[in-house]
Amino acid sequence: MLIQEITAILTNKLSPKAFKINSETYGLYYDKNWNNKIIKKGMLTIDLTLEAIHYALKQKVNLIISYHSLINKPIKKFNQNIINKLALLSRYPVSIFVLNSTFISAEEGISDTIANALYLKIDSTFEIKNKNGIKIPIGRICSPINYLNKKQSFILENLINRIKTNLNLPYVSYVGDLKKSIKKICIIGGYISKTNYIKKAMNIGCDCYISGKINYFDAIFARDIGLNLIETSHYQNVILAMKKLCNILSLEFPEVEFFLFESMNPIKTYI
């Protein structure tokens, strides 16, 4: 299968380039000679760690699809870790495609995956604008379904317990009243949260906001305005969506062997 065919479905459908939030890394990120390249084996990963790169090369992968890029924040100089990765990649004809935040907004992407995993009914999208004024459907507006007792109100505690169970989390950080009824939920699946997103969610009638990142000052703000906040695991959010993407690509391109490299969550909890 030609690499152009795989990248075309990624950029147009599965993780659309149009959903870039700002000037982040996206698309074919590292490639020695990609034109008309035949792809026989592809690996999906959350991060381009040394472990992931080593494993890909050992498995003779010729396309890596990564959620995060090799360099995820501005650097003043190359550190030894990055030098080691580049030295390793330079010796092998492997291509790298980076998804980044476009995969949060995509249909069947991270926000969709979290909503479906929690058995929530998706009613509409939650849109923001990038620096070019283009609307990005980064989140999902959902309503809860109480399968156990449809006559009983669905409360914050029910939602948190569902998150712990369905996302396999040892604990869940939250802001709010556990006994408060939940009727309208905003989900943003990535490691992205801003105060203006929380304000917008509140203004459109949401009583709960779920994100992979909640900072202290947003938590204070939400508590003051009476909005429930829930922070889920960034790693768990992304790994669930990457598993789904791996299945989709395997069905779309059966002649290519796709597999997911499941690195361990670097953040551990002591309970």
The Rg value, from CA coordinates, equals 20 Å
Number of strands: 11
Number of domains: 2
Mean pLDDT: 91
CATH T-level topology of the largest domain: Udp-n-acetylmuramoylalanyl-d-glutamate--2,6- Diaminopimelate Ligase, Chain: A, domain 1
CATH architecture of the largest domain: 3-Layer(aba) Sandwich
Give your account of this protein's structure.
This protein is α/β, with parallel strands linked by helices and 271 residues long. The protein folds into two domains: 3-102 and 237-260, Udp-n-acetylmuramoylalanyl-d-glutamate--2,6- Diaminopimelate Ligase, Chain: A, domain 1 (3-Layer(aba) Sandwich), CATH 3.40.1390.30; 107-231, NIF3 (NGG1p interacting factor 3)-like (Udp-n-acetylmuramoylalanyl-d-glutamate--2,6- Diaminopimelate Ligase, Chain: A, domain 1), CATH 3.40.1390. Helix content is 34%, strand content 21%. It has helices at 3-14, 50-58, 80-89, 102-105, 110-117, 156-166, 195-203, 216-225, 234-252, and strands spanning 27-30, 41-45, 63-66, 95-98, 120-129, 135-144, 173-175, 185-188, 208-211, 228-231, 257-260. The chain has a six-stranded mixed beta sheet with strand order 5-6-8-9-10-7, with helices on both faces. It has a five-stranded mixed beta sheet with strand order 1-4-3-2-11, with helices on one face. Strand 2, helix 2 (50-58) and strand 3 (63-66) form a beta-alpha-beta unit. Helix 2 (50-58) packs parallel to helix 3 and helix 5 (110-117) packs across helix 9 (234-252).
